[in-house]
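Give me the fold.
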Amino acid sequence: MTSLELAQKIVTILDEKSAMDVSLLHVEEKTVLTEYLVICTGTSTTHNRALEGELEFKLGELGEKPIGSEGHDDASWIVLDYGSVMVHIFTQSAKEFYKLEKLWSDTENVDISDLLID
């Protein structure tokens, strides 16, 4: 699976689990850490944990396991590192506070409209 295909699969899984404000940023030209960032918002810390669990389960079935993860305890900002794709799952207040999308505003925002459920 290519990095873009993995990122798109992550977007689809998050959307199917009712994540809000899902975005996909191509950051490869700006950092050596990863190629894509997937950013989304959950409705609560419980929802964030459910989003994380669903990603780990469904990607695990495909043989994709995170290299690392952080933020499980508090769950206001959970990060999953899949190497070429990093996933950030925020509560609304944490997303507004950290403004990660603004930090990466000079990167390509990948069109994911065809991946999202209407």
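DSSP finds four helices and six strands in the chain.
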